[in-house]
């Protein structure tokens, strides 16, 4: 069976790596190629992950880069079509909810190539989020839907997706986490040398709803500047957020608020493991903190990952300064939450995915 895996943006890399590695164990059954759309292209957003996750060098890189959503999606579609026609895969595997995911799904559907979606069925029910549109369209078109949790199955069934297309396999990102946790702990000594704090808050923010508007971003940054006077705060800044901070002229010179370059997978994981609190708007980090049992506040009004709230350590907090500050102070003063692991978040999701392919 000829498989083409598609990655494009940072959160795709840790989802594809375990599946590619698992399929490689069955050489006679699978021939694999890896296509990188180049949606993320900077060293710290892409290459460092290939190195740390042991991903093979992409067979094709479309080198699309940044642009408006329509432009980026259209470029990925136009540039991937000849690749698909030349390689003629039996299955294309797409990951997550980024523009690369939906673009390839659309192209494949017109060429009659079957698509499998890993991380299907998640819904925030907020159609102002570009990722929600990507998720809805991808799941309507893809033939095989691999879901991380039961809520995803319920969403898909409600949308009329046939039961036999859905496979509840668990969370493949947790496979990567389980696999690389020992290496991340080895990195901890270096990381601790750089940030020698007893307690610290770890922050990531890049959602358009938080960083594209001057007022919202100012409120968030002002909350961070204030809380960091109490607990040092480490904030690896996503390129989109950096652009906004520069554009809006938002500056914070509090020495306890550490605005740093985006980190690689291992360093960031080490920082999550040892954090007192994580504040984020990322989907993946809500899941990783749930697995690690680290308290997490999500600066959003909704989440497509409700299991991280119902079972895990996550709590929605919104993005206003007052709400952020009071929630952070409360979390820092409470004992560590006792979350539960969602079923099948056990480090063996890739095996279950590959088993489904073997049965086809
Ligand atoms: C994308 C995904 C989002 C995911 C996030 C993880 C979509 C719609 N969004 O958002 O779901 O959570 O990636 O990072 O697909 N940039 C660089 N270097 C890079 C990549 C981006 O400087 O390597 C800058 C560019 O200026 C660009 C901006 O970041 O304009 C945004 O990049 P883009 O890929 O369009 O979306 P993200 O906000 O990263």
**Count of discrete alpha- or pi-helical segments spanning 4 or more residues:** 15
Radius of gyration: 20 Å
**What are the segments in which pLDDT stays under 50 over at least 5 consecutive residues?**
none
User: Can you tell me the CATH class of the largest domain?
Assistant: Alpha Beta
CATH superfamily of the largest domain: Glycogen Phosphorylase B
Strand order of the largest sheet: 3-2-1-4-5-6-7
CATH topology of the largest domain: Rossmann fold
Report on this structure.
- The chain has 360 residues and is of the alpha/beta class.
- It folds into 2 domains: 186 residues, 3-Layer(aba) Sandwich (Rossmann fold); 157 residues, Glycogen Phosphorylase B (Rossmann fold).
- The protein contains 15 helices and 13 strands.
- The strands form 2 sheets. A 7-stranded parallel beta sheet has the order 3-2-1-4-5-6-7, sandwiched between helices.
- Helix 1 packs across helix 15, helix 7 packs across helix 11 and helix 9 packs parallel to helix 14.
